[in-house]
Amino acid sequence: GGAGCLTPLPARQGPRWSPLVQARRSDLRAYLKAKGVAWKEDASNAEPFTPRNRWRALLGPMRQEAPGLDAHLWETHLQVEELAAFKDAQVEGWRGARWDAGPGGILLARNWAGPELRWVLDAAFLELDWTREAALLRDLAAWMLPHLDRRPGAAKTWGGWRLSGTDASPANTAQESLFPWTLKRC
Q1: Domain annotation covers residue 6
Q2: Which of 5, 50, 62, 166 could form a disulfide with 176 if both were Cys (CB 3.0 to 4.6 A apart)?
Q3: What is the pLDDT of residue 57?
Q4: What are the residue ranges of helices labelled H in 95-172?
Q5: What is the C-alpha separation between 31 and 181, in angstroms, rounded?
Q6: Burial, 103: exposed, middle or buried (Cβ in 10 Å; 0-12, 13-18, 19+)?
Q7: Are residues 174 and 104 both part of a single domain?
Q8: More confident residue, 114 or 42
Q9: Is 26 among the domain residues?
């Protein structure tokens, strides 16, 4: 869901390769006709069992009304893809300085903006193989934000999550000063 649904279908998806992903069917049909090759439609494309097939039926009339629709959608895809790459680079750049993840949970520094914290939680949850649902990340970040700007005191819990001060044993003193907070599942 979310912005990920606005990214383009990649030309390479594992063993599949779709070099014509940006080409329109009408253009492909015309090309094949000029080459004397018959167009063969996959009958399953007309079945309404996938969202893609249901959208395909709606797009024809929309394209007639707005001929530039495909170009605008493709540009939107590319911009969202660029923003996602920028976000991922930011999050990776903060790693080690503002956050880290490992078997002990997610280590966090202070001073986060809401979107930044959600992005970091998303990356850490992915790495730790924890469930990443947008609503959970949004609610968890909103609960965590006011605590992260304070000095760690007693551990706080919310919805199966525990936010506590990082272990301040002599072996972890540097880590504790850099990452005063640790998030773990209860």
Answers
A1: yes
A2: 166
A3: 85
A4: 114-128, 134-148
A5: 60
A6: exposed
A7: yes
A8: 114
A9: yes
